[in-house]
Amino acid sequence: MLPWKRVLRPLAALLLTAAVATVPAATAHAATAPTSGWNDYSCKPSAAHPRPVVLVHGTFGNSVDNWLVLAPYLKDRGYCVFSLDYGQLPGVPLFYGLGPIDKSAEQLAAYVDKVLAATGAAKADLVGHSQGGMMPRYYLKFLGGAAKVNALVALAPDNHGTDLNGFTNLLPYFPGAEDLLNATTPGLADQITGSAFLTKLNAGGDTVPGVHYTVIATQYDEVVTPWRTQYLSGSDVHNVHLQDLCPLDLAEHLAIGLTDRIAFHEVANALDPAHATATTCASVFS
After folding, report:
1. Which of 62, 71, 211, 228 would suit a FRET pair with 254, their CA atoms being 20 to 30 Å apart?
2. What is the pLDDT of residues 1-33, one digit of tens each?
3. CA of 224: how far to CAs of 106, 163, 210, 221, 282, in Å?
4. Least confident of 20-29, 120-129, 134-143
5. 86: Cβ–Cβ under 8 A, 6 or more apart, which residues?
């Protein structure tokens, strides 16, 4: 192996390590959700919550580990809650969201159809973390999702890519590094600031008509950087700075999607704005 290739492989591994901040600590198998009441295809949405909620995990996440707290949180509030696995790579179990993001969006499209058919609902709401907050925008914009989705609520989404605190700026100094990422983990390559995927996704505007967008970001995000690039522009967008709601909240990229009940309270507000209540530091007890 050429010397530069010996460098590229650890470089790719380091990128994976940086992104792995999205990996939950739990190790539940992703084949089926635990017996907590979510992914129950017999669930019928209520008059109070007429749309099923589809949870979209982040890079290196899966349909179980990413949602061990938020799924029961929403289920306890009367929602029909579902989650999918997407972006699988051959021979890589449990850690998903690594395949080409446009193909992952196709998986999401098929899953939303499955949920709507099972529940009888006309539209779904989507809640995503990290890549799972950005990838659905491809579905909405290019795959007909806007006709089937009422709202997209995104926790720490990389809507305009990430430079991993400037680390990706080093890639040009390693010839072949970007090609290696594209070949081995295209889902990671697609998320780098300025990628062809993101250029296509954001061309002509961030949003599509008919969908309500909420972005919940934390200033302590160490994975999607600069953190303000998570925000969207559009006529039906609500961008939320978590520390404006609770200055004491130190949640970073991982915690905002996995455990932070202050962020989760804002998710609940976005899903049911007619009954929204103020999100404060005390929301951790709600």
Report:
1. 211
2. 333 334 334 344 334 434 433 333 333 444 444
3. 24, 7, 27, 6, 27
4. 20-29
5. 56, 57, 96, 97, 99, 104, 107, 108, 111, 135
Please state the pTM of the whole predicted model. Answer: 0.87
Give the lowest-confidence range in 148-157, 165-174, 193-202, 217-226. 165-174
Per-residue three-class SS string for 75-114: HCCCCCEEEECCCCCCCCCCCCCCCCHHHHHHHHHHHHHH
Mean pLDDT of 133-152: 98
- Sheet with strand 237-241: strands edge to edge: 81-84, 53-56, 124-129, 149-155, 212-217, 237-241
Q: What type of residue sits at position 112?
A: V
Q: Show the tokens assigned to 31.
A: 């084949």
